[in-house]
Structures are given as structure tokens and as C-alpha cells.
């Protein structure tokens, strides 16, 4: 019998209800997010346009101030104006001075993006003419001249116009004017109201958006063709319950040293489109929910039930049984999945066989290391040394050499365990070093130190032998005396005890390329029969300690190789 699922099962309509509830929650959340997004975008656009208007107003204020100061300085200090006041317009001096004045204001005019018009009026000579290129048409020019003649009669001209830019109407068109008087001389700056606000008109304010100038009374300064802007602005000031949905707002700013300001009416139809888009999205979500309900019913009939049967068949499978065939199934994919499952079981069997073979191969490492350690040339060297001692009648040395060689090979052949006592392994190393001292005499010395309590620790046999033999082979020579050290200590922390075995010598040390490969964990080249012992020992430690043992290779600063072996307690099943 298949095991029943502990979690509670629900009918398909339960999941439909859950899905509809989720969709309804999403719709409500979508509405809230939509209204919040509309409000945020509206506020951000308002702030952006307000900052844009403020930047523009500040620049115009600076232009107004600079132009006003320049005209005042020119009237008070420019020699051309003084010359023109001394002579008549027909005089050569007057014409030369007027030409120079024209050039100066022409250069000044080039410094500004807006088209400022400059005029000079000399009351004594009744002379009025533009002092820079002008885009003013002749009827407007005559109307301006007429109004200037009227303004100069006013005793309050200085208070009304000096440093106070004001709107005037010339032939039903609004202009902004500034008059700077100095005794009987006047400099006039004039700019069209449309030209003044043209940069702001280039901003996208929507199909019904507009930019206009307003006077101190709040009335719009517009041309007759734009009178509808007044109505639109007043409508924008009205409030209603749908202000959040309406994409209409007004941004205003006041010029300094002027009797007027700027008003921006923003009318984005995009906001209304966003609301329609949100409603369409909600409608789409409802359609999707209904569609999902139908799909789930369809899945229940044609897919979920066959999957349930297929799942039941899977619960009947085991490693030795054959998969059950699905019957009365119109889903080709499930039949294909059944075949794949059969193949998967076969691959699992193959994998287990490979794992067993791999386990046997690792166990074979234990047997191989002993064969690798029994080197014929070492045995022959021992016999040769004994023969040489016999020729020299060194009977005590022969006895010592014979017993050491006997103990050395007895330890190798009789030791078939995975772990031995550390004291036994150190005694074996000491025997090996004594054998080598018979050969090399005073070419090297050795020193063995171990901490108390470490002698009974278990370590794999012949691990120390491998690295001691490596030191003798590559470090000992008859040129310089070499010292070989074996130090055993015990590191204890909160979790475990680790035996630290340090083998060092004062020889030339590891070759750089060999040391680099050892430190990086890369295998060494064993094609020439060398370095087999090191690689074999690393493999044994990885297998016996399950990758918890570590070997660190280095060269000491004073020269010589150093190998540090960190061995935890062996796994209990290995003992």
C-alpha cells in the first residue's frame, strides 16, 4: 500500500477560490498603486515645472538687472550719448556717436537669447530711434514712439519705469518695456511678451497646456488669439472631488523688478489614459482568472488525474521490480516519462556498481602503499653496507645494522592495519634514520620530540616514513651537515583534538615549481617513478580521514623543506 500523504487535500474549486481571492487582492492593490502613482507623477511633474519656471525667472531677472544697469551706465558715462546731446542729428559728430552707440547695443543684444529691442530718445533734439537691430514692425514702432513721447511728460516716469519692467500694449500686442531716464536722455528696452516666454512654451505641457504672463492683478497678458487661456486658467483653479484624477495643475512665478509674473497651465491627458489603462488591466486580470479556472478544470481531467495514476505507479517501484506500465493514458509525455524512469533505475544500478568498484579501488590504495615503500635498492644498500662493514671488521656496527634492518622490514611486512600507535611509527622512523646514519655517517643528524599524551594516538602506518625518506633523499649530502627534525604536538579546541606532526630539514627545500603544485593541491608528475610516495600518502589520508586531514608544504626562511601534517582522531569505524 502506498503511504498516504499527511497534508490535507483540497478539491480543484478550492484552489480556484484561492486564485480568485489572490486576483481580487491584486486588483485592489493595483488600484491603490495606480492612484498613488498618478498622484506621485503629478506632484513630480509639478515640482519639475516649478523648478524650471524658477530657473527661467531667475535668468530673466538677471537679464533685466544687467540690461538696466548697462543702460543706466551708458546714459551716465558713455561719451557717445554726451556727444549726441551736444550736437544736432544732422551733424557728423552726432551720426558718428550714434553709430558707435548702435554697435555697442548690437553686441549687447547678441548676449541674450530673447530678442531685446533697444531705443534711444533725446528730448532736447526730439530724436527717437532704435540703437540696435529691431524686429519691431513699423506700425508698432510708431505706436511705441507715440507712447514714449507721452511717458516722458509724466513727472513720475522715474518711479514708474526705472528698474521696473512693465507691460504695454502696442496695436493690440503686449510688450515688456523698461525706460531708463537720465536728465533729458532716455534709453528704452522693449521685448515682445511672446518672445519673453517662448522658451517656456517649448516645454511639453499637454495638448491644452499653455504659458502666459500675468499682471499684478492676476489678469493674463495675452494676444487676442490666446484669450481662451484665461478661461482655461480659471478652470484650473477650480477644485473638485476628482482633482486627483484630473491631470491639470498651475505653476506660477513672479519676476523681481517687474509688475508681472509667469503662469504655466499644465494639462496632461496622459493621466486620464493611465486610469483607462489601469481599468483595462483589471478587466484583463478578471479574464485571466476565468481562463485559469477553465484551464485548471481541463488540467484536472486530462492531466492531473493521469499524473496521479503515474505518481501512484512510481510509489510501487523499487530497485529490483520492473516499472508498471501506464494503461489508458492519452498523454504521450507520461509514457515517455515512464520510459525515462526505467532508464533512471538502470543508471542507478550502474552507478551503485561503479561506487562499489570505486570503494574497492580506494581500499586497494592501502595495499599499494606497502608495495611502493618496499624498494629493492634500499634493501640492496643495506646488504652492501653490511658487507662493507664485514670487510672492515666492524662487528658491532654489523650487529646494529642487521638488527635495525630486520626490525625495519619486520614492521613493514607485519603491519597490515589501517592505524598504528604514534610511538610505534616514531620507533620505525628512528630505525630508518639509524640505518641511514650507518650509510651517511656524520652527514646528517636528527632530533625527535613529541608532546606528552601523544604516543598512544592512532595514525596510518608509514606516513611519517614517506616524508622522512624524502628529506634523506633530497636534503642529505656529504658536503654540508643536515639536521632533520620530527616534532609532534597536540592542538585542542572546543570541538576536537588535532595531532600536528612537523617534519623539517635544513636542506635545499622544495623546488619552486614542485612547492607551487603541492600548495595548490595539484597532482605531481609521477611518470618517472618519483614522488609516488607523497601522492600516495595524500590519497590515503583523504580516504582514511574522509578529507578531514590536512598536509601543508612550505620552505623555511633559513632554507629547508617543511611538511606539517594535521591529523584528527580517526573515524570510529576505521579503528
Structure description:
The protein is of the alpha+beta class. Among the domains are: 78-195, Beta-Lactamase; 415-574, Heat Shock Protein 90 (2-Layer Sandwich). 54% of the residues lie in helices and 18% in strands. The protein has helices at residues 12-77, 79-86, 92-110, 138-151, 157-161, 193-196, 198-201, 228-237, 270-315, 332-373, 376-391, 395-414, 422-440, 463-475, 512-520, 532-544, and strands at 117-122, 127-130, 166-170, 173-182, 185-192, 210-215, 220-221, 248-254, 260-267, 420-421, 444-450, 458-459, 482-492, 497-505, 550-555, 561-568. A five-stranded antiparallel beta sheet has the order 2-1-5-4-3. A hairpin with a 5-residue loop joins strand 15 and strand 16 (561-568). It is elongated. The two termini are 42 Å apart. The relative contact order is 0.06. The model is unreliable at 1-5, 223-234 and 236-245 (pLDDT under 50). Keywords: ATP-binding, Kinase, Membrane, Nucleotide-binding, Transferase, Transmembrane, Transmembrane helix, Two-component regulatory system. The chain crosses the membrane at residues 279-304.
